UniProtKB/TrEMBL annotation:
SUPFAM superfamilies: UDP-Glycosyltransferase/glycogen phosphorylase
Domain of life: Bacteria
Name used for this protein in its record: Glycosyltransferase family 1 protein
Length: 407
């Protein structure tokens, strides 16, 4: 797009965000007008609970909705999540969704949304330092949070990863860091965004949760909020490692960040030798993933970041053997706060070939390790533990937290 085109698009967005849609439509081409039929109704506020939580606006990996369901396990708490959807959306379930076009362009939608959230919810959890009211406050989340707090709404933030992870810190920490030999412009962009988001959180001085433990190093003083899955959705009846050639699945959301290039030559070599059956998938709709895990024996998460995320949790719930590059800090933190050892098997790219060959020769040993996954997921990632983490922010009593953790 030319510079003139960019300025024209920006001008159109500003116009649409500042004046009612019916007036903006007068000045815009037909294909840029927002029709009233495109606007979903505002989210219905929960009813009856002493606390009502709103989680918005990205729902990465379906976690906004999953955390809402977790919070709803607490007595007196009701929760809803919201997501704006892009064309590349993977169709994760959400309580309330709106198209990205309406989210960023409709003055009427933003005005209704502001009223609904201010009047219907006592608490808001802002995901990834993103705006939740589109361009109503020129897209500045700090202005939105200030407005919500003036209205008496309690606000916290939750980071999903890239939004707060500092490439400069990570590159010094880990020899396998994806930020060491990556294109400088890409790394600079991530660094700039993360530092900007840290500045936002510094200015807001609100509670901060992080979805993976390694982010605690990026944001000291934050709290780990474990990702949540429904264990039954991922459960598999057949045990792994019964095929002559174990099926090895790698499903990177972002191959560069996940270290795919570090491991794929090894996997392709082992596949060519007939040792394994290597399967790589990308951008698969969420509804298809449970069967992919059930059809796998080994799931490879990431080999560059030193953490585990939703992919590992889903694969553990299915009883699959999970390999990933895991930092000691992550394993130690998980053990210290949950009292349980993380069943993800720590493997670096340099160790991968040897470990895969070892799996093939010692199947019973690794099948027993994989069998630890479902119990770990039930204890740490089925929502109950995450609910107890959210409880202090939501003002839930200690007794209610203890009752939930004991069930």
């Amino acid at each position: 797009m030319s510079r003139f085109g960019r300025y024209a698009a920006l001008g159109a967005r500003v116009l649409r965000s500042r004046v009612p849609d019916r007036f903006a439509n007068v000045f815009l081409p037909a294909d840029q007008r927002i029709r009233a039929s495109e606007l979903p109704k505002p989210p219905s506020p929960p009813g009856g609970g002493a606390c009502s939580l709103y989680i918005a606006p990205v729902n990465f990996a379906g976690q906004g909705r999953a955390w809402a369901r977790a919070a709803g396990m607490l007595a007196g708490v009701e929760a809803r999540n919201m997501q704006y959807r892009a064309e590349s959306d993977l169709a994760f379930d959400a309580d309330y969704s709106v198209s990205e076009r309406v989210f960023w362009s409709s003055h009427d939608w933003a005005a209704r949304q502001k009223r609904a959230v201010r009047n219907g919810f006592s608490h808001v959890l802002v995901e990834a330092e993103r705006a939740i009211f589109g361009s109503a406050f020129s897209g500045y989340p700090e202005r939105e949070v200030a407005w919500l707090r003036r209205a008496g709404v309690h606000v916290a933030a939750v980071s999903h990863g890239t939004d707060l992870r500092l490439p400069s810190r990570h590159a010094q920490l880990d020899e396998w860091s994806p930020f060491r030999d990556a294109p400088s412009s890409w790394v600079a962009g991530l660094e700039s965004r993360a530092r900007r988001n840290h500045e936002i959180l510094d200015a807001l001085d609100i509670p901060v949760f992080v979805s993976t433990p390694e982010l605690l190093l990026d944001r000291p003083g934050s709290t780990w909020l474990p990702v949540v899955v429904d264990p039954e959705r991922w459960r598999a009846d057949a045990p792994p490692l019964e095929r002559a050639r174990p099926r090895v699945l790698h499903a990177p959301t972002n191959p560069l960040v996940k270290g795919t290039a570090l491991i794929e030559p090894v996997l392709q070599k082992l596949d060519a030798e007939g040792v394994i059956d290597y399967v790589r998938v990308q951008r698969v709709p969420a509804a298809q993933m449970p069967q992919l895990y059930r059809d796998a024996d080994i799931v490879l998460e990431q080999f560059a970041l030193g953490m585990y995320s939703v992919t590992s949790v889903e694969a553990m719930a299915a009883g699959r053997l999970v390999f990933a590059h895991i930092h000691d800090q992550v394993r130690d933190h998980v053990a210290s706060v949950t009292g349980r050892d993380l069943p993800v098997q720590p493997v670096t790219p340099a160790q991968l070939e040897e470990r895969v060959r070892d799996v093939v020769s010692r199947r019973e040993h690794y099948r027993a390790l994989a069998a630890n996954g479902p119990a770990f997921v039930n204890a740490v990632h089925d929502g109950r533990f995450s609910a107890t983490v959210l409880a202090p922010f939501l003002g839930v009593s200690d007794s209610a937290r203890e009752s939930l953790s004991e069930n």
